[in-house]
Amino acid sequence: MSQRDALARHLLAQHERAATLEAELTALPALDPENGGEGEAEKAAFIEGLLAACKIEDVRRVDSPDARVACGFRPNIVARVPGESPRTLWIFGHMDVVPAGDPAAWSSDPWRVRREGDLIHGRGVEDNQQAVTGMLLLAEALGATGITPRQSLGLVFMADEECGSRHGLAHVLDAEPKWFNAEDWYLVPDAGSPTGDAVEMAEKGQLWLKVLTEGKQCHASTPEEGVNAFLAGADAAVALHDGLATAFPEHDALFRPPVSTFEPTRHEANVDAINILPGRDVFFLDCRLLPAVAAEAVLARAREIAAEVAARRGVRIEVEVEHAQAPSLTRPDLPDDAPLFPALADAVEAVYHVRPKPVGIGGATVAALLRARGLPAVVWSRIFNTCHQPDERASLAHICGDAAVFGRLLMAHAVKPGSRAAHA
Ligand SMILES: [Zn+2]
């Protein structure tokens, strides 16, 4: 048996160890200070202890100062194992989790793993402890088997992913830019599909607009004495939703869904009483834009549509940018731009017997931070997508299977640029 197959077979048999690690990690809730927590320090100390037990010599901390937590910092851990090749396979997992939400919505204590056969339930077991556990299994397997990997390995355990990554990956990349090279492989196992058939290689741009409508407040029984800002705002919501979709009909089959989207979402509270006609209305529009659609053009068209509604309704409407993020793309059609894709597709097929396809999503992951620095990241895992939900769950078979995919990548023969035709 080849070393690659031996490593994969070893990892596929780690169901009990995966269950133990998940239970220990879940019992250390790493909540961000925005969510009333003390950050990741306890969980990071536990992970460092495990890495030390695997005899990994190169383990470094890249802490980000944060006065909001008692210890004063947010930990990031970078563990490296040298391989035969200087190329590094980087795998990223985040240690922080979101709060449990309404405990009554859970079938059991969210912070104590409940096991039912192959399934485990608990806050964080999928997002992102499936990745963290797989990374730890890989580290332990290298120690247990004594295999020298073909690629070098870099495991990055991150803070702050759920609240923007400022103290997490963004901090690590700013503090240690020389560690990360464009020739390396970057895998973020933090999104995926239940069969493992989707490799996320692109994210739409985000444009969040605030729409403020000003009319004139009055008694609701005499509407002719005022101007109903809620009514005009509702008109604007429909006009923007429909009008922007018509103005930007571009189609890109890489993405799910394959079009840009323009959704009215949050609406601010207005008047306290039913019999008051509101004079002010604020709502937000969440736009997710294909790479071919320019945010400036969308903003300009949104302001034109708002002006038409304002004239029709006799109100003033302002459209402001609340948040914008450029699209990020690791182009699947260019092998030099996506060196990991063919090797990942081979590894996934070997473990799960499906050939994954590249996809684009409307959501955002830390892969965007890597891509923004010219590092060609892909996002893949085999997950149920129960993240942030009550009764969040994960499959022990998939945790071990994902770890086996990591192991196969670590032992893969390098794919030379331009040779992707061989894998088509
Ligand atoms: Zn996540």
Q: What does this protein structure show overall?
A:
- The chain has 424 residues and is α+β, with helices and mostly antiparallel strands.
- It has two domains: 3-202 and 328-423, Aminopeptidase (3-Layer(aba) Sandwich); 205-325, 2-Layer Sandwich (Alpha-Beta Plaits).
- It is built from ten helices and 20 strands.
- The protein has helices at residues 3-12, 15-26, 41-53, 129-145, 169-175, 229-247, 295-313, 340-352, 367-372, 396-410, and strands spanning 58-61, 64-65, 73-74, 77-81, 88-94, 114-116, 119-121, 152-158, 185-188, 198-203, 205-214, 218-219, 261-267, 276-277, 280-289, 316-325, 328-329, 357-361, 377-379, 393-395.
- The strands form six sheets. The protein has a six-stranded mixed β-sheet with strand order 1-4-8-5-9-19.
- Helix 2 (15-26) crosses helix 10 (396-410) and helix 4 packs across helix 10.
- It binds zinc ion.
- The site of zinc ion has 5 residues, from loops.
